[in-house]
Description:
Blueprint: E1 7-10, H1 34-38, H2 47-52, H3 58-65, H4 69-78, E2 87-91, H5 100-105, E3 110-115, H6 118-127, E4 132-137, E5 149-155, H7 163-176, E6 177-188, H8 193-210, H9 226-235, E7 240-247, E8 250-256
Amino acid sequence: MTIxxxxxxxxxxxxxxxxxIxxxxxIxNASLTENASATEDTPPERMADFxxxxxxxxxxxxxxxxxxxxxxxxxxxxxxxSRPDFSLLDLGCGTGLELExxxxxxxxxxxxxxxxxxxxxxxxxxxxxDRMLRLIQGSFFDVDFGSEFDFALSTYxxxxxxxxxxxxxxxxxxxxxxxxxxxxxxxxxxxxxELQQEFxxxxxxxxARHGIGNDDIHHIDxxxxxDCETSLMKRAGxxxxxxxxxxxxxxxxxxxxxxxxxxxxxRY
Length: 268
């Protein structure tokens, strides 16, 4: 996929004289009608445009309208580092709602955030001007993640990709983690395979109707079941995958990249 306006922005704690950009998270409708509304005459928006144009209402929407304050607080409790200056890769960092409680608990945390929306990245950097932030505006599929992170985190950002794309992304995330690293996923999920297939077929029809290529990142929902998410994570190489919370239209999953112990025969 293509990178839209790819650039890197870093806080003064990482580099001096950095300019500000912004990244995305997802504004979703719990009634599962996002795709249906776009199948009329109005095509779905490009992902960056969708979130750039909603920057003023995003936090209010997620916290008040969607009632997800508890979700962001719980996510923060599930990150349990062995040292205070741990490194975290945030996929779809948006305005940083998932980082607020984490920075309160771990002000030395070093975050690399990736997003397509410049307005959201600017909002995130304005919230945390003195924190260790490295913000990248670009596509998950094109940005080099590196291989240095203790944790990877993604909240309400990954439900716009098909199974192949999601598998590739989980493989990249697995490779970006240290040998004992952890992925924490919190996102929109659906309760049945039938509904997952319905969303997938809707996305295919929507792209065909409006002439949207497979490599173009638009705001089209393709949420998976929790079982499908965990299966893809295991296929990507995570050796311990656990669903820690599941509700009607969402799930929180922890996937660990554990060191594999070599089998040895010991004599006593």
